[in-house]
Amino acid sequence: MKTVVIVYSSVTGNTKHVAEVIAETLAREDGTDDTFSGDAITTVLVNADTEYKRQHTNPEYTGYTAGDAYVVGCTTAAFRTSDLMREYLAGYPRDMMEGKPCAVYGMCAGTAGYVRRELANLLRGNGAVICAHDVFKGPTNYLAGGYPKAGKLQVWPEADHTPIQAFAEGLTSAFDRAVADPQMKCKVPLGGVSGAIFRMVPGKKIDGMMRMSLGPLSVDNTRCLRCAKCVVSCPYGALAMVEAEGAVPFDPTYVEPGTGYYPDRQENTEYVQSRIAAGVNSTRVVVQDEALCHGCYRCIHVCPTAAINPTKRMDKWKHMPRYHYTEGTVQSGKARMVTETEYDALVTGEQEM
Question: What distances in angstroms separate CA 335 from CA 238, 259, 268, 318, 332, one per listed residue?
């Protein structure tokens, strides 16, 4: 029996739906199980969003699922792979994925997803062999209803299952080819709407994305937790954590939790508290290779204490929220949730809490 692990990150339910159809197609209910290298297939569905939260709150997390092959699908979040999927995959043990066949698919409500290349690069970083890819267009759902105020999700039309099933039915032969030739090359195009957008915009393109460097990053080591979230999340390998004796040490008396696309202030504060309690190695610092920086802001978004700031394009970044906690509150566990009014004030301008 071969195990195919299907990992997905879904916002409106479309990506999850595709994952379920792929699972049903691979392990047919009529008893005529498909085969992968001569064995029947069993499938395991993994919700990366749920598992990331468990991973994020438990330093001893060991809930990763080992498989003989993988299928990974993700919705498009701000033109990129979701942060939850990225960090979940970054933590996946390399020995579970190295040399294993892997297929990727992209999703976006109302249009074809275009995160498959980024997913492929993430998985190649874990040693996986990319052997198949596709994109799927789902119902418009929230977009049609004025996100995020839409009501009931639209039902995926039965006819739209055909391309998903066709993709799934071709996976077993793709897996077999990858097993036979671990060095096989599978070119994954950018695809989707963004491919046309970037073709129309002048400028240097690297791996399909425009290069817009943030300039030299300013890292405040008095706030840096040395958690390496920025290093792990950088899609271009522009950051590294290195030993640097004599570096400015971390100072727990004032930290700034809560940056990111989906800031959960309470969860973020608990994470900062746990890192402080475990101790911060102040001899390690983040360094940047500016030549590799694409200006995606991901390192800034994931930093739990707002220790990273760009030296370029500040006109855009200055509108992002900062969450301030007065001296001593975080390490003593006295941080509190803010009201909607206070939150609005934080978005429009920094405010002490």
Answer: 33, 15, 11, 24, 8
